[in-house]
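Q: Hi! First time doing this. I have a protein sequence and I read that you can turn it into a structure. Is that right? Here it is:
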Amino acid sequence: MKFGIMTGARSRSADVNDIGRTTTIDETVALARRAEAAGFANLWMANVFSLDAIMTMAIAGRETTRIEVGTAVTPTYPRHPTAIAQQAVTAAAATGNRFVLGIGLAHKVMIEDALGLSYARPARHMKEYLEVLAPLLRGELVDYDGEQYRVHGLSVGAAGAGEVPVIVAALGERMLELAGRYTAGTITWMVGPRTLSEHIVPAIGSAARGAGRATPRVVAGFPIVLTTAVDEARAKIAQALAVYGELPSYRAMLDREGVAGPADLALVGDEATLRDAIARIRDAGATDFNAAIAETDAGAFDRTFDFLASL
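A: Yes, that's right. Below is the predicted 3D structure, encoded as structure tokens:
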């Protein structure tokens, strides 16, 4: 299992003591260089309403030499698949083909309530999106007529860019089937080890085999902190991540796992506790561990980062 670091809308991703301060480009580049030097395999960035994740990961990848960079994830609805394909191949060219495009539906509250776009038939939306996007990322000419997208005689490409791998934030059966059939894998959040082993991994794996594709990648994202102040840390994580327990798609995964809220999925404790928890995630079938390090007290980010680097 490969190890990666998550960054995104706030400084140091799940930094519950610093809510509201956005990550800067310089901070992201510094983290990418630090993660690369420490031996991490990848750096993932959330796309909310701060820095654009594709552009920022292209910059971070340009400023490093080995580490894989990717989005976790960029919402599909606000961007036409031809536009996101052009961005993705540009990022691939900028990073020496170390860029992974992670996409997702986001949530009704963001797409419909905030942006005024229809969130009806999301699985149909993703199917059509991938049927346009996937061949574009392979450098193919697309002629497509769907209900939501119609594209004719179009291809995208950039000098130095190879085929861009795409992964989908997939939780439900239909989304996992689409991810397995059309993409390189999935990236998860608010999904526990039991749900990974009993639901996510079997469903996407079956779809990939049925489509004649390689074993899919499963990038499992978890809040994590190395600490002896376990109760205090969980309380802070619960406060910072409370919204995820209210979003229907994540709530369904929490219920499937049999936990009350997001903090119950967090990896919190000493080194032995974290090693055991990470082993469960590996044994559940995750190919990548995506660490959203929670700085629940001074120094927590650095000591958790160093612990993960030692693995």
